Amino acid sequence: MDEKKPDPVLPRIAAGEPGATEECIERYKGLVWWLARQMAGSDAEDAVQEIFIELWTKADRYDPSKSSEPAFVAMITRRRLIDRRRRIGRRPPIDSLDNEEREIVVRAPQGVEANAEVALAARAINTLKPKEREVLVLSLYHGMSHSEIANKTSMPLGTVKTYVRRGLQRVRERLTAQPGLTQEAAT
Amino acid sequence: MTIDTASPRNELLDLLAVQATEGLSGEDHRRSLDLLGEHSDLSEDHFEFSAALAQLAIGEYEAQAAQQDVPDSLSQSLLSLAAEHEGSSSSTSRLSEGSADSNVVSLDQRRPRAQWFSQAGWWAAAACLALAVAGWWQPPATPPPVDGTTVVTVVDKVPLTIDSVLQAPGTLIIPWTATEDPTAVAASGDVVWNNELQKGFMRFRGLTKNVSTDFQYQLWIFDGTRDERYPVDGGVFDVFSEDLAVVPIEAKLPVDSPALFAITVEEPGGVVVSSRERITLVASVQST
Description:
By secondary structure, chain A is an all-alpha fold. Helices cover 64% and strands 0% of the residues of chain A. In chain A, α2 (20-40) packs across α3. Chain B is an alpha+beta fold. In chain B, the strands form two sheets. A five-stranded antiparallel sheet of chain B has the order 2-9-8-5-6, covered by helices on one side. In chain B, strands 1-3-4-7 form a four-stranded antiparallel sheet. In chain B, β5 and β6 (232-237) form a beta hairpin. The longest helix of chain B has 18 residues, at 48-65. Chain B is extended. Chains A and B meet through α2, α3, α4, α6 and α7 of A and α1, α3 and α4 of B.
């Protein structure tokens, strides 16, 4: 592949470069929007604005040696959405996942490095047993709580927690085994 | 892996996994901080990076597919926030963590969300096509050459971006036609294929979600230059969402002249030769 990884924009925001925040919006609004739609439902638009403000104010915390910028953005976004969910209340009812006409929108992570990270994560997920993968998908993709997953799948709550942890551990092991990806993500 | 929940380290890892997926209560968060003090090799974000990438891995194609549909009103609000951020020399301190809510611009011009797929052709159904296909596509008398069947899912990645295929010259976009199979009752969508790139993907709405241990979907590509009894295996896949699912095509052989795309319901892992008992969706190149 001869795609070039775009220059990180967060360090330029931290340095006060004019226009960098707009570039950040253009580059990541789809990614943040998609995650917000997944995790915040009808509250997504307000959440996206909150998240971008946080990204700009925490721009100096991004360390390119620790993760790709899209991964950092996704991580900060998820953290904010989880905090927001706990602060405001639960996300839309689970039933709506099946019935609601949701528009899932995103600008995908850009650059070879980000794609490589996602591909590694995908491979790790595929090494999980079907039940383990199902639990991880319900948790991360559908945003279900561990208790909700237990109810839906009739698995004991402890098993759900074990599967979630195992899935994340598998992804982490796959990522940290790669040169250039360090053990801890930047925060 | 056996998890020893009695171990403080494992208790901490359990808490960190919960934190990365649904957040911790105040009490649990305090407990995790206490435990982190005893385990300096772990950190609060131990699983957060992995969770973010795993979520992107599961939903990456959906993400790419609808990239242009961020509401205009939201884009404008973000640009206003950006101008405010850049225009204020003290913006960093004013917009410090915890004060973000006060800076959120109200959205008084929310628009109905854009339709991700164009309406034209999306709901088109040609039952007669399905019947024609069923008649044309007779099971082979003898098995085709075995190329191996690889199980793929939506989280198996190929070097593909939705945009690169959609924008490439010669890309075919063909609406699916539902059969009477129960999985396709509410199904619609299209198949996108570029023959020069030998890449493409399928988009579905309403195709019944499957559990991979019960059954899986399998794509078959009929190539006009090949014996029609032996369609090219386009990959086995799962559908996680009935709202929108986007699945890359994994053609196991080069496709010279695609004539028809067909999806069957198969046993877990897929098959080398389909019995064709359950055809759920078809898309005919000639009908476009």
